[in-house]
Amino acid sequence: MLRWFYRDAFLAKLHVHTEEHVQDADLGRACQVSLALIFLLIPAKILVLLLKPEWDFRLTWIALAGAFPLLLHRKRLSVLKQIDWHTLVFFAAMFVVMQSVWNSGFFQSILGKIPLDLTSLFMILAVSVLLSQFVSNVPLVALYLPLLLNAGATPKEMIDLAAGSTIAGNLLILGAASNVIIIQAAERKAGVTITFLEFARIGIPLTLANVAIYAFFLNLP
């Protein structure tokens, strides 16, 4: 689809890539330690879940372990100042709003009026794809997941929710936090503006194709 909509951007000649100069070797080594911790702890968590579920540890521990070498670095204040705090606060606040919506019972009352099974594939995909465009996909999952669990959802429905919320990021800009972060960075650092309609021009057909492919493979024997 990208090749179809942006033919001129796919040039016949090869792009020339240059190696980026490392400006701070000491900070680079700290980053390598952080990445190594993350790459070690994620497989460790998977193994623990498979072999000893009672020893499981939270994903937040992995994130904190990865950040720890950088927080100890002498340039930690410089690194912290360059973090996109506006975007982080924006999405953190969305989780607060979603918890408030759940506690109010507003979301449950609306879905309760729909005469469809909340755990059906159609319902999960429709809710996760469409409502993610208003609150982003991750906060939507935080809101919809308790409702599915209360309705007796199985691991299959959890996978459907994971797939639907991931596909939702393709539809419109607000469908995923990563869209907002990347578009803001492109505008701020490269002066490139991606409009809502330009994103939707590719996002809408791409989302429809993804939903169709996912539903097709689920029906295979």
Mean pLDDT: 87
Helical stretch count?
11
Rg over CA atoms, rounded to whole Å, is: 21 Å
Helix content: over 70%
Protein traits:
2 domains, globular, 221 residues, single chain, 11 helices, 71% helix
Folded structure, characterized:
This protein is mostly helical. The protein folds into 2 domains: 23-82; 84-221, no CATH class. Helix content is 71%, strand content 0%. Helix 8 runs antiparallel to helix 9. The relative contact order is 0.08.
Task: Provide the fold topology.
Layout: H1 2-5, H2 25-51, H3 59-71, H4 76-81, H5 85-104, H6 106-112, H7 121-135, H8 137-150, H9 155-168, H10 177-189, H11 196-218
How is this structure best summarized?
With 221 residues, the chain is mainly α. It has helices spanning 2-5, 25-51, 59-71, 76-81, 85-104, 106-112, 121-135, 137-150, 155-168, 177-189, 196-218.
